[in-house]
Amino acid sequence: MNIQTEIQTVDNGVNVEALLGAREALSEAPAAAQFTWRSLCEWQNGAHSRSTVEGFFGLGEEQLHREAFTIDADHPAQFAAEDNGPTPVEIVLSGLASCLTGGVAAIAQHRGIQLHSVKAYVEGDMDLYGILGVDADVRNGFSAIRVRFEIDADASPEDIAALVAQSQKRSAVFDIITNPTNVEVTVA
Amino acid sequence: MKRTTTVIIGAGQSGLAMSRELTQRGVDHLVLERGNIANSWRTERWDSLRLLTPNWMNGLPGAAYSGKDLDGYMSVQELIRNIDCFAAKISAPIMSETTVLGVTRRGSGYQVQTDQGAIQCASVVLATGATSKASRPRFDEPLPADITELTPLDYKSPQGLPPGKILVVGASASGTQIAREIQASGRQVVLAVGEHLRVPRDYRGADILKWMEITGRWGAKFDEVDDLERQRGLPSLQLTGASGDNPLDLNNLQDGGIELVGRMAAIRDGRAYFSGSLPNLCKAADLKLNRLLQGFDDWALDMGMDQAIDQPYRLLPTRLPKAPRLYIDLKQEGFGAVIWATGYRPDHSWLKLPVFDRKGRVLHHGGIISDGLYVMGLPFLRRRKSTFIDGAGDDARDLASHLETHLGQRLAA
């Protein structure tokens, strides 16, 4: 079996040709590459809120997801809340893991690596003294985040390590978490 | 071994105010000073510094400001002269050039070990001030090797800086003053702005600090305010010793060419990274300022003075760069120095006693650490004005009274 046919037999469910085509098309049309992602969050009760994700802007026009998705966020009983959903910080951790995992799949497809299973275990450490305002020197957010991948694939450990490294390099959420972003909050 | 009843450590405004109280009460004592009188003022301030408090707030106990410029702001040199005169006037028993190495328990009193020998005493007053050390954030990586690092304790003037652009980290009183004078000297300054307190110098015809005086804020007591811990940790007001439009206002600093960035968040690969929270911090400072001014306006209405003084007004909101930069490659962009104006802390490391909290801060109740052991000159020690020149007198009186009672009980025991 030569390399060419091996690539063709790999199926991670990623349409690499479409992605590469999009990359090529967008590099000719920088305006189309400007996307704006949106979420609408509505308070339910207590710490419980529900975000709805439906429309976004990209390819020069308004776009829609196949359906409106909702994400509930709340806090667990230990925070005297009703636990109607994960905490916002757990959603952030999940976002990081999803972004890296999706990246692993796409890059594996592109590199001709068949995946059998990919699991990302994510942990974030937090000292509550920050959000509770007990100690001004403690930051509100995570003091550290760890992601541990367990990947079963038809590839050497080095190639798998390279997949994971490349997925971080091209990950939006990894960049969002590791680099600052200007955030402006207004009240209508 | 030398013996005395009370050892005061530090011959600045606090230690000398306490010396005066003890002399008046007939308490035998010594004032230990690592250098000369007002040592920190002499050696750890930048050249151009003037007090940000108007002169009517710069008097010493029994020696109110007697000059002609009550509403002016004295230079540090003038303050040092005043403290020298005050020390002579009260005949303070000062041992200068005496560095304290350790304070330990001895019997029912204390032993103070110095580089000039040991002193045994019944009580100790720590009056070394709130600004012995510069606090600075620690990041995982150091700055690139050839970038000079300074703090306001060792910065003297723009002329003493290495060539290149300057990053000033911290936008409270020290950081904004230093940033402004460096920019004015013809250098490009980038100012990293964290939480800050914006105020005008004057409001409705009076100095902002006068407003705080007449509305009772300076005299507020430590056991009467909500959330003392927060009050003690507040950043300093963006003020300098000059009248008129506040030159430290972030809008004025930007007019002078200073670039604002967010709170410094990290150093990575030779780049300084800044938080994206600058809009929020500026908005918060504007809101707090308006709340403060509203409090003054309400006071003027209540006192029936509203019509007698200038009309209320508000400053324009803090202007922000459209997209504040989030990182700077310090070497590539030609930065020569970083000045950490990120706060100060006291240094009581020579106090060999279990009196510290988990963060190494001395635990005290309005300056009383335990019977016979006192601390002075810390933020909001007993009053909001505890760290001001004229805050020393009231605190010294309160603590000397406690000390005197303690000595009496000790004799009776």
List keywords for this structure.
heterodimer; A: 188 residues; alpha+beta; GMP Synthetase, Chain A, domain 3; 3-stranded antiparallel β-sheet; two-stranded antiparallel sheet; 34% helix; disordered N terminus; B: 413 residues; alpha/beta; FAD/NAD(P)-binding domain; 2 domains; 6-stranded mixed β-sheet; 5-stranded parallel β-sheet; 9 helices; 22 strands; globular
Explain how this protein is built.
Chain B: This is NAD(P)-binding domain-containing protein. Chain B: Keywords: Oxidoreductase. Chain B: Pfam families: Pyr_redox_3 (PF13738). Chain B: It comes from Aliiroseovarius salicola. Chain A: It comes from Aliiroseovarius salicola. The complex is a heterodimer of chains A (188) and B (413). The radius of gyration of chain A is 20 Å and the shape is globular. By secondary structure, chain A is an alpha+beta fold. The N and C termini of chain A lie far apart (63 Å). Chain A is 34% helix and 27% strand. In chain A, helix 3 (88-110) crosses helix 4 and helix 3 (88-110) crosses helix 5. In chain A, the strands form two sheets. In chain A, strands 1-2-3 form a three-stranded antiparallel beta sheet, with no helix packed on it. A two-stranded antiparallel ribbon of chain A has the order 4-5. Chain A is built from five helices and five strands; from the N terminus they run ααβββαββαα. Chain A has helices at 3-9, 16-28, 88-110, 157-169, 172-178; strands spanning 40-45, 48-58, 61-73, 115-125, 144-153. Chain A has a domain at 87-179: K homology (KH) domain (GMP Synthetase, Chain A, domain 3, 2-Layer Sandwich), CATH 3.30.300.20. In chain A, a hairpin with a 2-residue loop joins strand 2 and strand 3. Chain B is α/β, with parallel strands linked by helices. Chain B has two domains: 2-132 and 346-412, FAD/NAD(P)-binding domain (3-Layer(bba) Sandwich), CATH 3.50.50; 134-340, FAD/NAD(P)-binding domain. Chain B has nine helices and 22 strands. Chain B has helices spanning 13-24, 39-43, 76-89, 173-184, 208-214, 228-233, 250-255, 278-302, 392-412; strands at 2-3, 6-9, 29-32, 94-95, 100-106, 109-114, 117-121, 123-126, 133-134, 148-150, 165-169, 189-192, 202-203, 206-207, 259-261, 264-268, 271-274, 327-329, 335-340, 344-345, 368-370, 373-375. In chain B, the strands form six sheets. In chain B, strands 4-3-2-8-22-21 form a six-stranded mixed beta sheet, with helices on one face. In chain B, helix 1 crosses helix 9. The longest helix of chain B has 25 residues, at 278-302. Chain B is globular. The model of chain B has no long low-confidence stretch (mean pLDDT 95). The A-B interface holds A 133, 135-137, 179-185 and B 230, 233, 262, 265, 273-280, 323-324, 326-327, 359.
